[in-house]
Amino acid sequence: MVQGIEGYKFWNWAETYACQPELYFEPSSVEEVRQILELAKKRSKRVKIVGCGHSPSDIVCTDGYLIRLNHLNKMQKVDKEKLQVTVEAGMKLTDLNEELASIGLALSNIGAVSDVSVAGVIGTGTHNTGIKHGILATQVVSLTLMTAAGEVLECSESVNREIFQAARVHLGALGVVLTVTIQCASAFHVEVQQFPQTLTEVLNDLDNHLQRSEYFRFLWFPHTDKTAVFYGDHTDKPIKTTSNWLKDYAIGYYLLELLLWISTFFPRMLPWINRFFYWLVYSAKVTQVKRSDKAFNFECLFKQHVSDWAVPIEKTGALLRQLKEWLDRNPKVRAHFPVEIRFARADEIFLSPCYKQDSCFINIIMYRPYGKEVPRKRYWAKYEEIMRKNGGRPHWAKANSCVHKDFEEMYPAFQNFCSIREKLDPSGMFLNNFLEKAFF
Ligand SMILES: Cc1cc2nc3c(=O)[nH]c(=O)nc-3n(C[C@H](O)[C@H](O)[C@H](O)COP(=O)(O)OP(=O)(O)OC[C@H]3O[C@@H](n4cnc5c(N)ncnc54)[C@H](O)[C@@H]3O)c2cc1C
Ligand SMILES: O=C1O[C@H]([C@@H](O)CO)C(O)=C1O
Fold this sequence. Notes:
Elements: E1 10-11, E2 18-19, E3 23-25, H1 30-42, E4 47-50, E5 65-68, E6 75-79, E7 84-88, H2 93-102, E8 105-106, H3 118-123, E9 140-146, E10 152-156, H4 161-167, E11 176-183, E12 185-186, E13 189-198, H5 199-204, H6 206-212, E14 217-220, E15 226-235, H7 245-263, H8 269-282, E16 286-291, H9 292-296, E17 304-312, H10 316-329, E18 339-344, E19 359-367, H11 377-389, E20 393-394, H12 404-410, H13 414-424, H14 433-439
Parallel strand pairs: 3-5, 4-5
Antiparallel strand pairs: 1-2, 6-7, 7-11, 8-12, 9-10, 9-11, 13-15, 13-16, 14-15, 14-18, 17-19, 17-20, 18-19
Bound molecules: flavin-adenine dinucleotide and ascorbic acid.
Function: Oxidizes L-gulono-1,4-lactone to hydrogen peroxide and L-xylo-hexulonolactone which spontaneously isomerizes to L-ascorbate.
Protein name: L-gulonolactone oxidase
Organism: Fluvitrygon signifer (White-rimmed stingray)
């Protein structure tokens, strides 16, 4: 029987949420996972699974038992015919990307970081960008799930289909995901073209941008009308990168963190910081060619708060103009750059933020320079107000102020998920404060 560790303290990546589980486990086998669930059941303890702890919320937090599947992290099967792989749930995308590259495969789309687990990254509806692409969970062909009772379910479009539609964005609420089978693509390079436009120019030409580039996204710099537009497209061209330590790190990371910290004492500096970094780092035209996963990942800098709601794609322009106009009218509210605007295709996954709607994700950020909290309450409140009023759905990984009735209104299939959750976990073993707020 795997021994639980007492006194373990969990912090999420951004060091914004922490918990002290009664016992912390790192099982080395499915049988050990089952034993931990049996022990938890006998002692009426709650259980949470942690992937890589990147979620910017308390979605992982528990005072019960915390299980990390870092030892269940291997690739189990490769189907070269179907271009599919089956991996253990704890596998990191950093490792998966390399293993796939070694066999000529790749994930068709991934988010900004790869230091995340396969089960964790699908479980919260993680997305990248590209209106022809869904959230990462849409790449899942099947998965296996251990329920609170220790039963292992195979879920796919043809087996336990209802559970599959729930489990792809599982929120850690349905049981322990043990393996995930993923539809991959043949390995590919992406040509990334970065170029400046004003916010007005981007928004007036949004449909064309979406059609012109498979992985189109853009960054808006609050307190300016400037954007950095990114086109990403498949290419056979050879790798060509322009990484420059001075610009990317000395200035783009260390100088920025210092200036943001100084601006906590002199807030009037902030708009000038946004303008200066736009001019210095983001206003140039840059073209690079990278391996796909390297093109999708980018430097996410230092600790931060983020919020990232999905809105119906047709509302993108109106909502960004509303947010900009409000910030222009309220100059005492300061917003860090960037606001990240990304797109994803509609899907059929019960709690996907893109459930039955092509969506635009609008991600706002406030950094914590050297861990220092920066005032963001008014910014966050106005942003959420605009999102709520316009059919927005918050990213499940990221802290938000929504409660059960909000989610019932947002998600047509919310009750389907709730019924499946109650059936698979009748005693609420996998619940925590985050999930109780959502489901009760
Ligand atoms: C720097 C940074 C960049 C990011 N970039 C993006 C981005 O570009 N796009 C985007 O959409 N999001 C992004 N995110 C959010 C991130 O993708 C999600 O928070 C993701 O869920 C983190 O994966 P994880 O492995 O750390 O999961 P965790 O945060 O550890 O867990 C997430 C959820 O999955 C559950 N879980 C994990 N493993 C299992 C399992 N085996 N069985 C059952 N439940 C499980 C947990 O209980 C929890 O509910 C980013 C976050 C950070 C910190
Ligand atoms: O949570 C996230 O963090 C990064 C970005 O905001 C910079 O860190 C990203 O793209 C997310 O979705």
